[in-house]
What we know:
By secondary structure, chain A is mainly α. Chain A has one domain (16-500). Chain A contains 20 helices and two strands. A two-stranded antiparallel sheet of chain A has the order 1-2. Chain A is globular and about 70 Å long. Chain B is an all-alpha fold. Chain B has one domain (6-96): Helix Hairpins. Chain B has three helices and no strands. Chain B has helices spanning 6-26, 30-55, 59-89. Chain B starts with 5 loop residues before the first helix and ends in a 13-residue tail after the last helix. At the A-B interface, helix 1, helix 6, helix 7 and helix 10 of A face helix 1, helix 2 and helix 3 of B.
Amino acid sequence: METANHLIRPEFLSLGADQIHALMPYFVAFAGCLVTLLLSVIRSVNPKWPVLLGTVATCVAASVLSIEQIREPSLSLFNGMMVSDSFSAFFNTVFLATAGMTALASFRYLDRERLQHTEYYVLLLFSALGMMLMTSALDLIVVFIALEIMSLAVYVLVGFRRADRRSNEAAMKYFILGSAASAVFLYGSALLYGATGSLNLREILAVLQSHPEGMSPIFTLGSWLVLLGFLFKVASVPFHMWMPDVYEGAPVPVTGFMTTGLKAAAFATLVRLFLALGFGKAVASTLQQHVHDILWVVAVLTMLVGNVVALTQTNLKRMLAYSSIAHTGYLLVGLLAGGGSDQGFSAVVMYLTVYAIMNLGAFVVLSVLAEQGDTGLNLHDLSGLARRRPWIAFALAVFLFSMAGIPPTAGFAAKYLVFYSAIQAGEIWLVVLGVLCSAISVYYYLRVMVYMYMKEPVGSAAPSRVSFWAASVVAAMVVLTLQVGILPARLVHAAKKAVTSL
Amino acid sequence: MMQVEPWLVLSFAATIFFIGLTGVFIRRNILVLLMCIELMLNAVNLTFVVFSRQLDSLAGQMSVFFIMTVAAAEAAVGLGLVIALFRTLRTVDTDQIQLLKE
């Protein structure tokens, strides 16, 4: 039919100069993947330095290119299968920065844990590339392939501590459940294809708008399955059981990368899918009401379960895993409110960026504090940390204040924006419950502070030296957290610009 | 040549898919779990092919090739993880792998 003719028209097979320009970040990232892969088999010198250098250079170069593209108008690529707009450029920057920072911060950690295999950096880059493709994809199959590029790399990263049982178990669990979720998503896309005759998100939306009376049951089932797959990826409540286990079993820097990059990628794509499936646009359908009601319940449950279970955790890594579930809940609130408020989805974009900044910082701090085999991350191990290592304690305190949403930090600005847009959308009860849950969360964040600042130090083990790179990443994140917290306007503006390009 | 009704193939694919999905949740052997995931992906392939024929559009058939490639990559990674797991734990039974507390 029409799509078949589109596929073989020669003008779609060549790239214009503007398209090549728009694709540069992807080319650079992909070239970086291949070059680091080649560098990692060097025999004459230890390959760890060249590979680290290559990874960081790739991330810096590609993110500079992406930052430039935030200002540029959106451009359709590859026959409408991908798009390069402010939204994708904005998130590309976030992913590349996350990957680069993670690479820098894990260098010393990997040395200490005897895990210094250069594949680590290559996998980080590949997964960042998958995230970039995923947020710019406009075709369900491209979304799937990008999702798999990202996930397959992360499955291996989670199991990177090859000789450790917990790491293996976490990787296996994540792999089985993650692949099942991808398959569910894929089955949903197959049904959407059957119902609308297209895999392209824009064409699906066009079909949806031309049938105001409602779609076939196949379409309804398909969109549910697609949504289900993504709710799993972001670990919202009925599908959250894998998350604490995986976060606990994975090496600390990988956990940091997962909470920031993976979550941002999944939510960014979810925003795109949401708009494509007619949510937030004036497509009057019962489906939209159902999606709204179910997501409402899911958001409340996610906030409640995440925060309440986090109260009982004594392991810092596991506590942050549950707090990450709670943050998914706040993000879902933003997603629900997106259609009905002035901010639109910019609250979600803002929250994701801020969450990436503060969580990345917190996990770099954890990777500095962790002892051999990721032990020594229990609450009582932190007793008197402020006296032993005042700067580390201060940084962790800033990140935890930000996660709790206490004013001079970025977390407050982001949470304020999410709840404000929810009020504008008329979701008063959701906001009330969200603020209550947020109040619960203050308890477990502050408890860490109590241990760090008000208890006597235990043990007298000489602290390991903090690597220069990890320290600079932490310092940069502290500065960003405070800067965005005090002057949020610039980031809000960038987020708005990103969302309007959708 | 005999014509097969599309809805018959579609419901067949749906059945296979949900057998796979159920298997992921109730089976205990990791190798069987990997097979269940393959089952789900292949059910999706079948669905795509049927819709592609029904809609007379090539996009569905194209998707099948991509899904097959991804499934192969997934199997490679999955089996690699199974080997790593077996080396440390000497078992492929998920009941005996419960180090991470709930």
